[in-house]
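I am writing to request your help with a piece of structural work I have in hand. Thank you for your consideration; the sequence and its tokens are set out here:
=====
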Amino acid sequence: MAGARPRVLDLYSCSGGAGKGYEWAGFEVDGCDIADRPRYPFPYHRGDALGYLARLIATGEIERYSLVHASPPCQAGCGLTVGTNQSQGWGGTHVDLVAPTRELLDRTGLPYVIEQPNGRARIRKDLSLCGEMFGLGVLRHRNFELGRWGVMQPAHPRHRGYVRGWRHGVYRDDPYVAAYGDGGGKATVPEMQHAMGITWTDVHEELTEAIPPAYTRWIGTAFMTARQEVIV
């Protein structure tokens, strides 16, 4: 429809960090998450993301979307899991949903984004973003695989210091907070909210898993620009 805002499907939506950024970039947002997310700020389907996406493809309902964003569970390949936790014998077995998610995203025929943290996640690192790029109080490096579209990698500015907290017996009081875990100087809930620009949830677990909306606002704006250039 002329003048209608493009719509993005936010899979594995959690608390809506990604979705909020896309809204700021000019999208209508629909989410999907297997857990109950009463603080998610947009309409969402509660259920298995892969099953829901398969249904949208089968019924043709996927055609109402211009872009699909997916943040599959990252525990199988994130740096903490394959580094500290593995070396200490902590944690358990985690399912890697990146490959089956990509397979379905390819079937949609739509442009898509797959987000994962630093580590061993098997995605192309077409784009890497860091909180310092947006003047945030977290570093929170994230990698993005871009399907059926692309964008130039922005410059990665030098960090202004370290992440606050204890590291190897040394406490650093530096400009970034650790938005994960508890103790050891990790960020409080209000500190995480302020550092990432997330105000609509105060649930610790949701904040530790969220990506700052500034990331997807940047991605969404880049997608809109590329889309407009194709139309013109």
